[in-house]
């Protein structure tokens, strides 16, 4: 069996036709457990189900509510395939020509990662450093105040 959503129809149709209970059977098969995972700078992160064939990257980004203000549209990666030897597809969302690629039709278990801009990442680091330094400075100032009042 193939991995595409339409792949299993053929063998099932052959099996039903082989039973000779139906003449020219029409098989409608919906696979409902296909999913992709969005991580990083998306409005909504998590698992998203692929509900129709040929769902594209743009479709799923729209379903997730778009990208955040801090997202770097040039750093999107799609990780596809088995975990030992994954295929990594780099996408520049700013380049309209790269969005036409056939590789952007999503497959089951694709992982889509979008990094923040360098300035947003730096800002986040500075905020975390500030959260550590600020209480230390309060204690130092309090110590200096107590020391100056006792003299």
Automatic annotation (TrEMBL):
Pfam family, one: SLBB_2
Domain of life: Bacteria
GO MF annotations, alphabetized: polysaccharide transmembrane transporter activity
UniProt-listed InterPro entries: Poly_export, SLBB_dom
Residues in SLBB domain copies: 35-113
Protein name: SLBB domain-containing protein
Origin species: Pedobacter jejuensis
Lineage, top ranks: Bacteria, Pseudomonadati, Bacteroidota, Sphingobacteriia, Sphingobacteriales
